[in-house]
């Protein structure tokens, strides 16, 4: 190839390489072999580990030097990124002392720099005569000695301020920067310890390779490439989608050897993933745990090895604990995902750490100030008529069985119980009198005002509070776990189920004035639904309603009301409308057990209509809790309050036994399920932790059964 043609072909590459040639730098490439380390390679080439790290941007520390990686070795010390004034360079590296060296015959500057692991510039700086005269036998030189540098710390990192974009999470940003979430928290200690929340526009401190920026950085990983016959820089650049000058920059020996040569082994950037912006719109994320391997990971994440490596090219350098991997969003089907993070399935009973000794406080309104335990008849009457008493005593009876159960598993629990007497003043007195230091969880109180009071004091001590029956609060409490799902969650679950089984049925909505939100939500899912006219906000205009029923399609009637009399009337009308030709089912998105279990409402009618509704609890079966409860309380069957007391308490105790911090455990534990309740807490930043686990229940042959998700297929 002629010189003119060669220069023309290299184009910008020649200009770019001027800076390398200006410093008379020489390079070699080295394919890392099994057993080699950064230290051993640097000794082999007689260069400092630091200079190898500087020349290979993708290598951040000694641990990143793996077999089959191609390294550029600068044979004359560190690469100078850009020319700096000598004064600035002196400030950067200062010697800790000097040693004397008398020059022998045939010694060279290069040989001295290799012997003492210094650069030529450093040698000349402290022996200024070498700037003007050659090295001569007999010269006595001052050899600067520099402090030993740990290879882990050698790659000096600058930091940049990163502005969080909408729909980004801690995991998506950690993946983007190739760091662990733990590293992100170390760099940004102001980030919340109880929440994973990131606000769009929030500024974070993140690492940036010196003299580089993430936006300009095209690649971090490289692949080995053997040059075939007749390959040109232009065609190679086109094939890999990188400019010719970048190839020369990565492989300085191309210039030294006068261009690409057949058989030359060079390194090229791995082809980039073009799957779009890395945020929760496009991806879900997984944080690698210790002792995991690729095979098990692909099985658990339901993804092929090829796709996993394509999306996460960093895996070429090996799987490391703390790595954040991105996965296609559609892979979320069948995985437990929270805040776009894939959670590992953890068996809490098998994951107990016996060193954890949880300290738990109960605050419930037992009303011992009003109950005369000597008057059995009156006490029984009070329990039967007062919901707060029935709830507290039932809840606590189940909680005691949970404490028995956790004790049998070998976990020691410190328990204190306080009677709030359904009085906010009493709660204030308890908080003032008692020392809550070291408490891991407070279960209760029940009343909204008392709950707010406790939550504020507990937050100052970083103590989580579990609300036994509340689903929300007028105030924001970042430390409160609301164990009952919000009405909106129940409604979304119900409508999602309905949409899955919908097959062009005739939908009719009956909603009173208090249920306008439910009315609008149903209509948004089923725009063709008919609206039934209600008289005096409590009964149907019968003739007009019957005209809306179809004889050719199954009729789906949504009833949205809390009025027992209206429920009774509508179920009676719908029941009488059922014939061979007219098929009717009834649903609601706003289930109120007090209204539907009222004596005025016929269970037979509900069963005939296969009445289906969302619920935060299900009927208790004959499981180990029910048997333990009956054994403890002389054969008494647990009511829903007792079931709830056991489920809420056992869930908290198992999570604390796994990791003695409920905030930390909630980040890594997905849905848990017990006798009659499930818990899947989602953190809503400063508002608290909200349970989003609930059930779809259906009346069937005078029994109430849970609609399993597997049953959806048979209904379709």
Automatic annotation (TrEMBL):
Keywords: Signal. It comes from the Bacteria. Residues 1-24 form the signal peptide. Residues 28-73, 99-143, 160-206, 223-268 form the LysM domain. This is Peptidoglycan-binding protein LysM. CDD domains: LysM, PBP1_ABC_transporter_LIVBP-like. Belongs to the leucine-binding protein family. The keyword NADP does not apply. InterPro entries: Leu-bd, LysM, LysM_dom_sf, Peripla_BP_I. It comes from Flagellimonas olearia.
């Amino acid at each position: 190839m002629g010189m003119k043609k060669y220069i023309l072909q290299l184009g910008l590459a020649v200009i770019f390489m001027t800076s390398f040639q200006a410093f008379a730098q020489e390079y070699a490439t080295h394919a890392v072999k099994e057993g080699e380390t950064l230290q051993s390679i640097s000794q082999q080439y007689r260069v400092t580990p630091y200079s190898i790290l500087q020349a290979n941007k993708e290598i951040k520390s000694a641990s990143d030097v793996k077999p089959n990686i191609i390294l550029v070795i600068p044979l004359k010390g560190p690469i100078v990124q850009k020319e700096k004034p000598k004064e600035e360079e002196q400030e950067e590296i200062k010697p800790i002392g000097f040693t004397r060296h008398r020059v022998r015959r045939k010694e060279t500057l290069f040989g001295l720099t290799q012997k003492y692991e210094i650069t030529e510039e450093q040698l000349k700086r402290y022996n200024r005569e070498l700037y003007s005269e050659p090295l001569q036998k007999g010269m006595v030189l001052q050899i600067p000695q520099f402090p030993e540098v740990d290879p882990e710390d050698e790659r000096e990192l600058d930091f940049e301020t990163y502005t969080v974009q909408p729909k980004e999470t801690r995991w998506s940003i950690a993946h983007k920067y190739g760091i662990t979430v733990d590293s992100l928290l170390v760099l940004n200690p102001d980030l919340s310890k109880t929440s994973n929340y990131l606000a769009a526009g929030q500024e974070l401190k993140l690492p940036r390779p010196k003299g580089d920026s993430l936006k300009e950085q095209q690649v971090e990983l490289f692949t080995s490439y053997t040059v075939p016959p007749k390959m040109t820089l232009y065609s190679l650049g086109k094939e890999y989608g990188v400019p010719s000058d970048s190839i020369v920059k990565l492989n300085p020996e191309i210039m030294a050897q006068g261009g690409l040569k057949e058989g030359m082994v060079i390194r090229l950037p791995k082809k980039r993933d073009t799957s779009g912006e890395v945020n929760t719109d496009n991806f879900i994320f997984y944080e690698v745990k210790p002792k995991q391997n690729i095979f098990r990971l692909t099985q658990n994440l339901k993804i092929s090895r090829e796709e996993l490596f394509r999306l996460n090219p960093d895996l070429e350098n090996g799987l490391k604990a703390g790595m954040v991997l991105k996965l296609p969003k559609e892979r979320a089907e069948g995985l437990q995902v929270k805040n776009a993070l894939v959670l590992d399935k953890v068996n809490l009973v098998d994951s107990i750490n016996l060193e954890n000794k949880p300290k738990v406080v109960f605050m419930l309104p037992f009303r011992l100030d009003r109950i005369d335990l000597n008057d059995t008849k009156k006490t029984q009457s009070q329990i039967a008529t007062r919901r707060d008493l029935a709830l507290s005593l039932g809840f606590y009876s189940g909680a005691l069985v949970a404490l028995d159960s956790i004790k049998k598993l070998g976990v020691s629990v410190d328990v204190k119980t306080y009677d709030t007497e359904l009085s906010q003043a009493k709660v204030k007195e308890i908080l003032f009198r008692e020392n809550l230091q070291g408490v891991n969880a407070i279960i209760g109180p029940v009343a909204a005002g008392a709950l707010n009071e406790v939550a504020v004091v507990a937050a100052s001590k970083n103590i989580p509070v579990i609300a036994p029956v509340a689903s929300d609060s007028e105030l924001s409490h970042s430390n409160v776990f609301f164990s009952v799902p919000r009405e909106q969650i129940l409604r979304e679950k119900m409508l999602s189920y309905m949409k899955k089984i919908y097959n062009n049925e005739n939908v009719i909505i009956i909603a009173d004035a208090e249920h306008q939100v439910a009315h609008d939500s149903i209509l948004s899912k089923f725009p063709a639904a008919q609206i039934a006219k209600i008289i005096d906000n409590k009964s149907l205009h019968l003739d007009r309603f019957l005209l809306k029923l179809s004889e050719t399609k199954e009729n789906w009637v949504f009833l949205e009301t809390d009025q027992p009399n209206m429920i009774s009337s509508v179920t009676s009308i719908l029941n009488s409308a059922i014939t061979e030709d007219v098929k009717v089912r009834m649903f609601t998105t706003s289930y109120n057990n007090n209204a539907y279990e009222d004596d005025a409402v016929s269970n037979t009618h509900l069963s005939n209509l296969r009445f289906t509704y969302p619920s935060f609890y299900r009927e208790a079966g004959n499981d180990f809790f029910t048997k333990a409860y009956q054994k403890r309380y002389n054969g008494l069957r647990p009511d829903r309050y007792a079931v709830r007391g056991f489920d809420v308490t056992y869930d908290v105790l198992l999570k604390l036994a796994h990791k003695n911090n409920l905030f930390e455990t909630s980040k890594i534990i997905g849905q848990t399920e017990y006798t009659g309740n499930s818990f899947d807490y989602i953190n809503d930043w400063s508002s608290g932790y909200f349970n989003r686990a609930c059930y779809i229940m259906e009346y069937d042959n005078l029994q109430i059964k849970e609609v399993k998700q597997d049953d959806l297929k048979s209904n379709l």
